[in-house]
Amino acid sequence: AGKHRVAVIGSGNWGSVASRLLASNTAKLPSFHDEVRMWVFEETLPTGEKLSESINQAHENCKYLPGIKLGTNVIADPDLESAVKDADMLVFVTPHQFVEGICKKLVGKLRPGVEAISLIKGMEVKMEGPCMISKLITDTLGINCCVLMGANIANEIAVEKFSEATIGYREDKEAANRWAKLFTTPYFLVAIVEDIEGVELCGTLKNVVAIAAGLVDGLDMGNNTKAAIMRIGLREMRAFSKLLFPSVRDNTFFESCGVADLITTCLGGRNRRVAEAFARNGGKRSFDELEAEMLHGQKLQGVSTAREVYEVLTYHGWQELFPLLSTVHEICIGQLPPTSIVEYRLAEGQS
Ligand code: NAD
Ligand code: 13P
Question: How many whole angstroms from 121 Cα to the centroid of ligand 2?
Answer without folding.
Answer: 9
